[in-house]
Amino acid sequence: MVGRRTALGALGLVLGLLAAGTISASAADPLVSGGKAVTASSIEGLGFEAAKAVDGSTSTRWASVEGHDPEWLRVDLGSTHTISRVKLNWEVAYAKTYRVQTSSDGSTWTDVYSTSAGDGGVDDLTVSGSGRYVRVYGTARGTTYGYSLWEFEVYGVGGGTNPPTTTTTTPPPVPGRRPAEVQARPPVGQQPRPAGR
């Protein structure tokens, strides 16, 4: 009888913790943005390229040109993914107003998160959406600088379906600036092998 009460008590504790959100019934989704192709609306200069935001290092960063809105950073996941979490690790140059968006084609975007009260630091966001592309679209800077991210992390699983989209138009580039597109390379030792070897 004591064993049965103990088992029921343990079950009650686990169910209580699940209901309170203390533990999760499923494993956390993996990081899917690391080392992926990244495009930015601009870069401040050498050493602040877009790929620095997905390189896994908090000592390198992407930075946009200073004093300009809007600016954006986009990661190509390579295929459609269901997105559950986005983690933004802002440098001092953060976004006060921004959106996190997904897209199946890189031109029609759906908001999965938006705020006008950004305060910098780390924004660890629970989101729900799917797409091949995920971007942070800043429309109002929190400082006089540009926008800058130490890391832009996207978590999810492959094989998601694309939800109905709402169209967001990306403004044309500013004359004299061009998008900064950088293809991240896999770490040494993880290079794809040629066929037949």
Question: What layout of secondary structure does this protein have?
Answer:
Blueprint: H1 2-20, E1 37-40, E2 62-63, E3 71-90, E4 95-103, E5 110-115, E6 122-141, E7 148-158, E8 180-182
Antiparallel strand pairs: 1-3, 1-8, 2-7, 3-6, 3-7, 4-5, 4-6
Region (Disordered): 159-197
Protein name: Discoidin domain-containing protein
Domain F5/8 type C: 20-157
Quick structural summary:
This protein is 10% helix and 38% strand.
Search tags:
mainly beta; 197 residues; disordered C terminus; Jelly Rolls; 1 helix
**How would you sum up the global shape?**
globular
Q: For the residues shown, what is the average pLDDT?
A: 81
What do we call the CATH topology? Jelly Rolls
Identify low-pLDDT runs. Answer: 13-26, 163-167, 181-197
Helix content: under 10%
Q: Helix- and strand-based class?
A: mainly beta
Q: CATH superfamily assignment? A: Galactose-binding domain-like
As a whole number of angstroms, the C-alpha radius of gyration is 20 Å
Keywords: Signal
Protein name: Discoidin domain-containing protein
Region (Disordered): 159-197
Domain F5/8 type C: 20-157
